[in-house]
Design goal:
The protein has 145 residues and is an all-alpha fold. It is built from eight helices and no strands.
């Protein structure tokens, strides 16, 4: 019981962070595709999947903004594109771990920088004058860091 009382706040915190990231991802994908998504269904599905994963000894997960944006920008619009991206990620992690560990960290950093550049909303720089100063400070601090 003591262990549960120690772990529970961290688990709830991770759940909130995961749900927030998934909701941001859903909103961004909705904007890119001019469609709507059922965010309530997304939250329920993620919660059920993470509980089942935990009961089976797995790790919790959530939608990833970078992967989702690149998938949509590459033409992926349906469930098959998401399934293939997840399936290939699973194959790489489970079966190709020795090969992937040979990739230099600097190369992975370069890929992440390119993902950041590709997903950044460049129009937000043009619209700096239209937003409040506090919003601009947060955006510029986030981008610079």
């Amino acid at each position: 019981l003591e262990t549960l009382m120690i772990i529970l706040p961290y688990s709830l915190g991770l759940a909130v962070v995961g749900l927030l990231e998934s909701m941001m991802t859903a909103t961004i994908v909705d904007e890119f595709t001019d469609t709507g998504s059922d965010k309530n269904r997304e939250c329920k599905g993620q919660g059920i999947a993470n509980i089942a994963s935990g009961l089976l000894g797995g790790m919790a997960g959530c939608a990833m903004i970078g992967q989702s944006v690149i998938n949509v920008k590459s033409g992926g619009r349906g469930r098959l594109s998401t399934f293939i991206a997840g399936f290939l990620l699973l194959i790489m992690v489970v079966f190709l771990d020795d090969l992937i560990s040979q990739i230099p960290m600097a190369a992975l950093v370069a890929v992440m920088i390119m993902v950041s550049i590709g997903t950044f909303s460049w129009e937000s720089i043009i619209n700096l004058k239209k937003h409040p100063l506090s919003t601009n400070i947060v955006m510029l601090a986030t981008v610079s860091i």
